[in-house]
Amino acid sequence: MLPEVTATRYVTPLREGGSLPGIVEADDLGTYVMKFTGAGQGRKTLVAEVVCGQLGRRLGLRVPELARIQLDPVIGLGEPDEEVQELLKASGGLNLGMDYLPGSIGFDPLAYEVDSAEAGRVVWFDALINNVDRSWRNPNMLVWHGDLWLIDHGATMIWHHNWPGAAASAAKPYDASDHVLARFQPDIASAAAELAPLVTEELLTEVAADVPDEWLVDEPGFDTTDAVRRAYVEALLPRAGTIHTRITLGEPTAERPSQAPGWLTGRPGRPVPVAEKGASA
Ligand SMILES: Nc1ncnc2c1ncn2[C@@H]1O[C@H](COP(=O)(O)OP(=O)(O)OP(=O)(O)O)[C@@H](O)[C@H]1O
Ligand SMILES: [Mg+2]
């Protein structure tokens, strides 16, 4: 189970995030980025954060630690922003926290070099979880103490939005052409050889066990929360063995809105000029 803490102070909203996550302090003296259950993106975004965040960590990728955060909306009473007030009011009880990395900066592919082994691991992992939200438009990676950290796994595993079609959906390929690390010659074959054997039924079962029951109850088509957990395992397990053969790395698209669905990201993509492939600053 994820560690559980109680929020003691709402510090500030993170306005870059479409779901309006906030920085909070908790009773373990830790500082967290809190993703709210009351956010419009819905609880499946939080389930995806837990399944993929925990999976990434278990595979040795850098993902900040996750925690369950109990929130009493009363701590936000002094917050002047009405939108934030509403979010806090709608999110009493259990929320998701991610360890806050102080002083981290957003990943910039023109300012930071990534070796092809690390790029391969990240692209392979994103292909496994079908992450549509690690593009050059919205990298969702941070650089902290010189290392690359992966955040924001809410827009992954599209199949959990339509369980009857999950097996077919999870068998589909992954287009990494717009992936922010596509320009670093990702060594996908080596990453698959290293990581795919680690994605066992046992590991996936442990990862799914970290998802709080509260976010799985009453899922249509399932009798128990463990049955829903099982569905995550069954979608990811076969995909792990073969997805490296179905990753495409074509030319990145230019000025076009993000392919990430707006209802997941909460905002349209922000087009910026694409740099020449292979160039680095
Ligand atoms: N663990 C962290 N430590 C420091 N800063 C963070 C952390 N997690 C998120 N942030 C900052 O908050 C921003 C929003 O976080 P995140 O991308 O997870 O939110 P989101 O609402 O899901 O965003 P999106 O609009 O990409 O869907 C990030 O771009 C980053 O600047
Ligand atoms: Mg984000």
Structural class: alpha+beta
Number of structurally distinct domains: 2
Q: In percent, how helical is the residue content?
A: 25-40%
Main β-sheet: number of strands, strand sense, barrel status?
Answer: 5 strands, mixed, barrel
Distance between the termini: 42 Å
In what order do the strands lie side by side in the largest sheet? 1-2-3-5-4
Shape: globular
Bound molecules: adenosine-5'-triphosphate, magnesium ion
Give the beta-strand count: 10
Radius of gyration (Å): 18 Å
Average pLDDT score: 91
Pfam family, one: HipA_2
Protein name: HipA-like kinase domain-containing protein
Organism: Streptomyces jumonjinensis
InterPro entries: HipA_2
Describe it.
- Residues 267-281 have low confidence and may be disordered.
- The chain has 281 residues and is an alpha+beta fold.
- It contains eight helices and ten strands.
- Bound molecules: adenosine-5'-triphosphate (ATP) and magnesium ion.
- Adenosine-5'-triphosphate binds at residues 14, 16-19, 21, 33, 64, 98-101, 104, 106, 133, 138, 140, 142, 151-152, 154, 265-267.
- Pfam families: HipA_2 (PF20613).
- This is HipA-like kinase domain-containing protein.
- Residues 14-239 form the HipA-like kinase domain.
- Residues 251-281 are annotated as: Disordered.
Highlighted features:
281 residues, alpha+beta, 2 domains, five-stranded mixed beta barrel, three-stranded antiparallel beta sheet, 8 helices, 10 strands, 29% helix, disordered C terminus, binds adenosine-5'-triphosphate, binds magnesium ion, HipA_2, HipA-like kinase domain-containing protein
